Amino acid sequence: MNVINSKMGDLTEMQFLISKLEENGYVYYVREKKESQTVQDIFWTHPTSLKLFNNFLTILIMDSTYKTNLYRMSLFEIVRVTSTYLTYLVGFAFMTSEKEDNFTWALQMLLKLLEPNSDMPKVVVTDRDTCMMNVVANVLPDSSAILCYFHVGKNVRARIITDCKVKQNVVVVDGQKKIVDEEKHSKLVDTIFDAWKKLIESPTQELYADNLMEFQDACKDYPKFLHYVETTILKPFKDKLVRKWTNLVLHLGCRTTNRVEGAHGVVEEYLSTSKGDLGTCWEK
Questions:
Q1: Rounded distance, CA 3 to CA 261, Å?
Q2: pLDDT band for position 231 (cuts 50, 70, 90)
Q3: Model's pTM, two decimal places?
């Protein structure tokens, strides 16, 4: 990477960033591409975060955010929750890609922060990113995985809107045809989505079975949508989404990635631009 401003002197952006991490006592790890000395990924954590990490090991919440730098490197953020329900940032990683290899490296670096004989995180909360889910299963096989029901719900609602249509009613107003099905469609969307939310919040297996029948009945005229939900969400992931199963682990109420989304917002406010270089990102 090229020198960007006089503050860096003869240092490249990456050299400048690393010099600042070292100067301020951060723990960091760098991975270079095999065929060159170009940095592929960099992970870092604040020394206070390191202490907190080894004291509050119950939950990890992780997600990536974008448009934080001019190189379009995604910023992978990992947060945790204290015993008083406060959120703190465990660590960050700038990654050149969001493939399983990148996430695996970042999580392996995270685990290097654990003190000897420490317990592994008990619960990991992510969105329904296939790569990230696979990596969590491989790197943290003894941790219980929970999927963010909020993001899954947004996806389900979007599919209801596009897949579930009401029969259009056409009336003539001032000699012009007008379709008046908006209100009916809105009510249909709300009805099906309410049934979905009730299903996800089922506290027992018996209620889950009852609520599933209610959801299926609400969707009976829309087999394509029902098939999508049952085969791509409920069948493979109900134990990571539905309250009956997620309540079997100590998640401290963390069933969404909202805490890390909030952390994204704080970081983005500090950065204030998506066009900054790595030196600018550090200074911000």
A1: 32
A2: very high
A3: 0.85
